[in-house]
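[Meeting: bench + compute handoff]

Bench side (C.D.) handed over the final construct sequence. Compute side (W.E.) agreed to return the predicted structure before the next meeting so the bench team could plan truncations. Sequence as handed over:
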Amino acid sequence: GADATIGGMRATRASGTNAVRYGTMRENVMALEVVLPDGQVIETGTRARKSSAGYDLTHLFVGSEGTLGLITRVTVRLFGQPEAILAATCAFDTVDGAVDSVMDAMQAGLPMARIELLDEVQMRGMNIYNPDMKLPETPHLFLEFHGSESGVAEQVELFTAIAGEHGGSGLEWATRTEDRNRLWKARHDAYYAAKALRPGAEGYVTDCCVPIDRLATAIRRARVEIDSSGLVAPIVGHVGDGNFHLIILLRPDEPDDLQAANALAETLNLMAIELGGTMTGEHGVGIGKKKYMQAEHGDAYALMGVIKKAVDPQNIMNPGKMVNVN
């Protein structure tokens, strides 16, 4: 993503557009070097593909948001470059049709590398920000397929059939590197494209993640809440793993906008937890979402505080973030 760093991604257990096939930071961090609050330097994990030796300390620190120690070295898993890469856009009449296509494709075992959803509001902003795109202002999937030449061809054929059953049309393919880069740059510029919908506005970005079979329900409910709030908030989602984002556009001189945005974000957080998901799929907790940790984790949240206090008894590592220390 824009300005992402390996350290920051590790700290929030984040991910990117390739996570649906290759996994998030949780799956791709193999070992760490960590400086503990008392100055001790430890190493966790190994380069071995698997281990059953002791506590999984590597993944204790992945996602700890700097509350347990400083990460000074990260060993990550690498993947080979695929023989063939094909990117595409596909327009749908409804968000439900786009999400249902993704669900059917995944249930059919289609190994898509990237599956990104942009709703009709986001597409309108994209056309303003990138006038050369000229895509229909309807919900879209941005897709990418990796594999052998024959394997990618089979994936494309199967997905085209699935999308057609759910109202998908106007597939546009990009095989050349420069065309793929242009397509994915447009996706990564989603924040700036959203801001083009409301010149002078600032973006309030929030995310949540739900089980795939609840994603259509979650996005439908999110759109109802957005409409009732009176705010402009495009939806962008990593739908292959059930994660989606709102880019809520606020006018800096309108305090009512911020109040409405906070209420909308709270509704989204609680809805995700209710649907068996999480109030943040990749942005992290920090202070802003700390108050929802108890609702999501129940009694396990208290154990996080115990761990924090044991590792950092003086509470000097990112104090006040994510966990409560008594």
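W.E. noted at the follow-up: The radius of gyration is 21 Å. C.D. will use this when planning the next construct.
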